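Handout for the seminar on molecular recognition.
Each group receives one record of this type.
Step one: identify the two inputs.
Step two: read the structure output and locate the region that could contact inosinic acid.
Step three: write two sentences on what you found, then compare them with the reference statements printed after the record.
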Amino acid sequence: MSKDHKNPPKILIPEVRIQARVRELAAEISSDFADQELVAICILKGSFIFFSDMIRNIEVPLSCEFLGLSSYGNETVSSGEVKVTLDINEPLEGKNVIVFEDIVDSGLTLNYIMRSIGARGPKTLRTCSLLVKPKSLKAPVQIDYSGFEIGDEFVVGYGLDYQGKFRGLPYIGYFENEH
Ligand code: IMP
């Protein structure tokens, strides 16, 4: 089946489940960092919707930074190469940093992020990913806050795209013949 708007993706995780999980993860982070300040890093592009929902639910003072990375081109398998399209210019030294990812697939991107951000000397560095594909992991990664574990199917929606499309869907979807 073709991945176009005439054949909308099937629902894998409905909007209500995503929103409930966002509230749970945000409550956990708020409790772990009570009375502290956070730097929340949004990994562009895929995390922008998850990030927006998370920061509106986290109840500790935070500042927002944006790190643009591209690794996939137009393919649905990881190239393993990470290109920085937008860097963070604010110092992260001595700060409590949480990185927000949309999905951890091979783990290569998160592994790169951890090394790159870790080198900037944060006081604490944690990771939060809405989705994790445990079967696809190839690189060692630490995911402190994980939304949902899924299979190795390609998913779209809630910020995630296929060839730049489907980011605006309020749910996580998949294409039927690939599930
Ligand atoms: P990794 O480096 O293989 O872990 O891939 C991480 C990045 O690949 C994510 O931040 C997404 O941008 C993209 N990606 C991985 N799997 C999917 C998927 O199923 N749908 C959409 N994008 C994906």
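Reference statements: The CA atoms of residues 128 and 145 lie 4 Å apart. The beta strands are 10-13, 38-44, 62-70, 83-86, 96-104, 124-132, 145-149, 155-156, 172-174.
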